[in-house]
Amino acid sequence: MFLFQLPDDVLYLILSYLDYKSLCRLSQVCRRSHHFTVRDPVWRRIAKDFINTGVTRHGADLYPTIPLKDRVKVSQNWSHGVCRKDVLLKWKINLLPWIQLDGDVLYLSQASDIGAYHLRGPEGVKFQHNRVAMFSGHQEDVCRFALTDIHLVSAGSDGKIIVYDRKSDFCMEYFGHNQEVNCIDCKGHLIISGSRDKTAKIWALTPNHFGKCLHTIPTYDRVWSVAISPSLCTFVTGTACCENFAPLRIWDTERCHLVSCLGTEFRRGAGVLDIVYESPFQLLTCGYDTFIRYWDLRVCSRKCVMEWEEPHDSALYCIKTDENHMIASGSSYYGVVRLWDKRQTRCLQMFQLTSTTSSPVYSLCFNATHLYAAVASALYSLDFRTSGHRPRR
Ligand SMILES: *[C@@H]1O[C@H](CO)[C@@H](O)[C@H](O)[C@H]1NC(C)=O
Ligand SMILES: *[C@@H]1O[C@H](CO)[C@@H](O)[C@H](O)[C@H]1NC(C)=O
């Protein structure tokens, strides 16, 4: 084949215009064709078009160590809902667990503690025995927590915020809220917390100012969710919508004034439970009004640019995005996890985690091959990868 005598970069460019099926067929023609068609440059365009391949809308690669071709293949399983469900952990009482994934370590809050579990422990070892760290100190339940490279910052029903050093035993308590701290976010040197006491607070996360509350913003409504913009200049609060205030408000982190309100019509009780930024201008929100909404602040703050409705009319407790086409959401009944492709109005896939008991999906997270979801009394994993052999549990 003369094609393969072309210079590599020219060849990659030509091959990158083939579609998924043609590339797969070509790779089976001969050893040489296989050699060239497994390379990442050939797959980049397709990977950007498929869901959850780890290639973001801006072209960044979240999992550079795994060949793109493999990720495009696994992506088909996400699209078709092909996966294996496992219960990683069960507990006896109903809790409001929150989870976060950091590489191979999953952080899980259970009642007043947060455990860090290694997900790739030795073969045959039960999940709970792979705990590598434990963070304690709250007198009541942990509501939410956030991770940075160095810290774990938790918000508790006891009104406290605790900043833990992830690598050592050092931790520091922040006091200031009068009631439950429902939500927290942490980026750069800023912590933002939101509470039932109808305030949001800005705290410093720099060694000289540990524990210092920089500002208190009265929100006149209970705060259920907060998120700091990647630009660090603003943050958004999601409130209960029980008073006459817009449930989504953007604030300036320096001067603390109200920058804008998102949306114009609010149903009473349409509280916002989760907010995720995709860029300094784009964010996703969800909550009691059963919609996922996509806002683009460059276009308009009065109206969202897209919205997706939970088909069973359930509240949505949590959302995550692959920073490209896919959104995963957790519903309030029967542990329903949904996958959405932003290019479609209808839900792409749904997975019901609990059949006998009804529980919200309080929290979820995923990488290119696995999705983890926490309900009131269990932690589940969905594995979309090559089936391989099943680890014993
Ligand atoms: C996702 O996480 C699981 C568990 O840590 C790991 O085995 C898998 O390799 C990860 N996948 C990617 C694409 O990073
Ligand atoms: C997709 O899922 C099926 C069933 O679990 C599995 O056999 C297959 O290997 C998966 N594909 C990839 C690329 O992991």
TrEMBL record:
Assigned keywords, A-Z: WD repeat
Alphabetical list of Pfam families matching this protein: F-box-like, WD40
WD repeat placement: 174-203
GO cellular component, one term: SCF ubiquitin ligase complex
Domain of life: Eukaryota
Protein's UniProt keywords contain Transferase: no
Residue stretches making up the F-box domain: 1-46
UniProt cross-references to InterPro entries, sorted A to Z: F-box-like_dom_sf, F-box_dom, SCF_F-box/WD-repeat, WD40/YVTN_repeat-like_dom_sf, WD40_repeat_dom_sf, WD40_rpt
GO biological process terms on file: SCF-dependent proteasomal ubiquitin-dependent protein catabolic process
Protein name: F-box domain-containing protein
Organism: Electrophorus voltai
